[in-house]
Design brief:
Layout (H helix, E strand, L loop, with lengths): L1 H7 L13 H27 L18 H28 L2 H6 L4 H12 L13 H25 L5 H6 L3 H28 L1 H9 L2
Helix pairs in contact: 2-3, 6-8, 8-9
Length: about 210
C-alpha cells in the first residue's frame, strides 16, 4: 500500500531557469550576422584605400567582390546593425538587464578573475552571473560598437555630419578610429567564440535560452 501511495503523489520538478530571454537571443544573433557582414565588407573597402601600406586583407575573407559591391553590403548591414543595436540598447536599459548583468565592475575584480581564468580556476557553474572579465568585455564591446557606428557615419557623410567628424578630429583620424574599433570587435569575437567552445553550455543557453 505504501508503495502504491508513493506513486500516486505528484512529483515535484525543478523550474526551468531561463538564462537568456528570447529578445536577447534574437538580437544577439542579428547583431552577430550584421557585424560579420560589416567586417568582411569593410575589409574590401579598406583594400581600396588602405591606411597601412603593409596591410591587405585576402580576397577570400572579404565581401562584395569590388569597392561598389562592398559598399552596398556595408550600408545594408549598417542599417541592420544600427536598428537592431539601438533596440538592444533601449531594451537593455529599460529592463534593467545592463545594470544587473554588467555592474558593478572593479579593477581588483577584473585582475582577480583574469588570474583565475589564466590558471583554469575560474568557475563557469552559474551562467546567470557574469564574472568581472565578462562584464568588462561586454560593456567594452557595447561602447566600442557605439564608437564604430559614429565614426562610420562621420566617414560616410563628412559634410552632413561635419560636427561629428570634427569631434573625431577630422575625416582622416575618424578612419583610424573606425579601423581600430573594427580591430577591437574582431578581437572580442575571437575571445567570445573561444569561450563558447570552452564552455559549450553558454552557447546552448544563447540558442535555446536555458
Amino acid at each position: 500500500m505504501s508503495s502504491l501511495a508513493a506513486t500516486d503523489e505528484p512529483t515535484a520538478t525543478a523550474p526551468i531557469k531561463v538564462l537568456q530571454p528570447a529578445w536577447v537571443r534574437t538580437m544577439h544573433w542579428i547583431n552577430a550576422v550584421a557585424m560579420i557582414l560589416m567586417i568582411m565588407s569593410g575589409w574590401q573597402i579598406y583594400n581600396a584605400s588602405p591606411l597601412f601600406g603593409w596591410l591587405r586583407f585576402s580576397h577570400s575573407i572579404t565581401l562584395g567582390g569590388w569597392l561598389a559591391g562592398a559598399l552596398l553590403w556595408h550600408f545594408a548591414a549598417m542599417w541592420l546593425l544600427m536598428v537592431n543595436g539601438l533596440a538592444y540598447l533601449v531594451t537593455g536599459f529599460v529592463t534593467g538587464r545592463f545594470k544587473r548583468k554588467l555592474l558593478p565592475i572593479s579593477a581588483g575584480g577584473v585582475i582577480s578573475d583574469t588570474r583565475a581564468a589564466l590558471t583554469g580556476k575560474l568557475s563557469h557553474e552559474d551562467l546567470s552571473k557574469y564574472n568581472q572579465v565578462q562584464k568588462l568585455l561586454y560593456a567594452g564591446i557595447i561602447a566600442t560598437g557605439v564608437i564604430v557606428v559614429l565614426s562610420g557615419l562621420s566617414i560616410w557623410k563628412p559634410v552632413q555630419f561635419q560636427y561629428l567628424t570634427a569631434l573625431f578630429g577630422g575625416y582622416d583620424i575618424a578612419r583610424y578610429v573606425h579601423f581600430f574599433g573594427m580591430c577591437a570587435i574582431v578581437a572580442f569575437l575571437v575571445i567570445h567564440i573561444a569561450l563558447a567552445v570552452l564552455v559549450p553550455k553558454s552557447l546552448r543557453a544563447m540558442i535555446i535560452g536555458r
